[in-house]
Amino acid sequence: MEDEKYLILLYYCYADIQDPEAYREEHHLFCIENNIRGRIIISSEGLNGTVSGLESDCHRYMEYIKSDTRFADTEFKIDMHDRHAFAKIHVRAKDEIVHSGLRHLNPRKKTGKHLEPLEFRAMKDQDDVVILDVRSDYEHKLGHFKNALRLDIENFRDFPEKVKELEHLKNKKILTYCTGGIKCEKASAFLLEQGFEDVYQLHGGIIKYGMEAGGEDFEGKCYVFDNRVAVDVNTINPTVVSTCHICGTKCDRMVNCANPVCNIHVPICESCGWEYQGACSSECIDHPEKRPYDGTGYYQKNTVGYNPYKGFYRKSEKQPSPCQADDNS
Prior knowledge:
This protein has ten helices and 16 strands. The chain is α/β, with parallel strands linked by helices and 329 residues long.
């Protein structure tokens, strides 16, 4: 249907998957057949994904997941969009559904107490509460909760080491939060393992908080892992906390450096964007591979020759012909 809207789905589910590779193939095929695009991780500990598609296709996809008893309680964060938020479909089997190095922790057995958005909002300003952002630094620099404790980590796998610096907070109520809730499952479980006794997590993360609590006191924008890059969360008392990478003025306009070798993703104001031709520095302006700047700072990956079936077949099975498997992207 011409007027049918697109949806973006964010979800995860910790569950026992005996044969992740077999389920990956099944899942991949379903996505192909229903024009679902995005990034999905399958592991023996569960599944984690962000996908997009037409509304009817996305509803079919949600039914497909929830019809499997292993994933029946999966909760989807649903957002509207005017087009696909991804160019391709990637379904990968990995050791963890979010890389933490904490494979021994099972959130289904022990994790922090889940707080619904309105409960989180009611607790977050209490004197004995510490709001802990468990995301990476490039995420919380763009946006974070007011008064949140933000860790200087490049990746979530650095979180366990940073917890050593939080020993003095063991007598506090720790309220963890992340984008969609998945990192908090392991983060809060690890805090409990390390002797923190009163640990909570924002159920559904920042995205659900924006939908159900108006995003109150979330400052800046929320970094997301699809083509939107950054989304508004706060409709009650919004503000901008990030600054232009070049001139330092307040700015939440995210840009990929036009130099593909650099390609860092940072806030760059419109004025600096044009002055530096989409590059993040003087050095990158002069790089011989610098991409043409169109004012957006977003560069769609080349999908020429994209074949969604690439990587679908098991090694033991007959491979598609070279022309079927060609992928020049």
